[in-house]
Amino acid sequence: MDKPPVYYYTLPEHAAGKYYFPPYITLAHLFHAPDNWGIQPRMLNSYQFQYVVDGYAEYEIEGRTIITRKGDLIYHMPMQLHEVRTSPGEPYICISILFHFGESAYPVEELIGEDRYLGNFAGHNIEKLLSQLIAHYHQPGLTHHTSCQGLLMQLFGELSRCKQERETTTEGQHKIKTKMVLIRNHIANHYDREIRHKELEQLSGLSRNYIIVKFRKAFGMTPFEYLTRVRIERAKELAVQTNMSIGEIARSIGYSDVHTFGRMFKNNMGVSLSQFCSSLVTD
Asked: HTH araC/xylS-type domain: which residues (predicted)?
């Protein structure tokens, strides 16, 4: 009996080099640094994203010192000399993600730039993607593994979009962005109470619809999606750092009903608050 024919697919010449293998994530965790913690100069074979959830640290990459605080995201390439220093008495909590693309090159710098400091993304959709990636990474199964890869690629897409926006921002756009930051900070400081659109209009001098459009463009979400994000992050902090019950946490971030809070958290994070806390237990 003749063997069935074997077919090979070859990319057309014009498409060569346009497709890349997905990243392989070797580590993704939320790290609570002990007092006066640090990393001596070293080089890794992987790329690394380091996102500051809370606190302060100095991150040095090939002789350049980058002061990082809450919301800051940095990265380094494989085989780049780097070290980390914290200060006595200063907390440092970070999301750390290590990944590589095997033996195939990937145009990381083309996408997100050569500057190892990528920006401050407190409350941005990028922060949400990082948190979701951590939650999926600590769950077993191929579905969660694939979700992690997808979230990392979404992260690259968001960072690339932010890079392009920075390169094309005009003076007028910068003023609008400043007002959006004002609104963002106001929400972050008053997340534990009801906030209405009228309040944001009076604060910024802009109309409701204009605020929604520009805030989404600046941060990847609407003001009230951001409010939800702030509440989620605060709930996670309280769950990890205190002995408060879920009901107490819900009330402290502006929810009178614990069931409404529970549904909101799971809809946004994909897991319940208790499941999320369990996933953070590492050696």
From this structure: 181-279
Q: In terms of domains, do 148 and 202 share one?
A: no
Query: Is the distance from CB of 50 to CB of 94 less than 8 angstroms?
Result: yes
Q: Is the pTM of this model over 0.85?
A: no
266 and 145 part of one domain = no
Q: Is residue 77 part of a domain?
A: yes
Selection from 44, 31, 53, 33 nearest residue 77 by Cα: 44
Residues 104 and 135 placed together within one structural domain of the fold:
yes
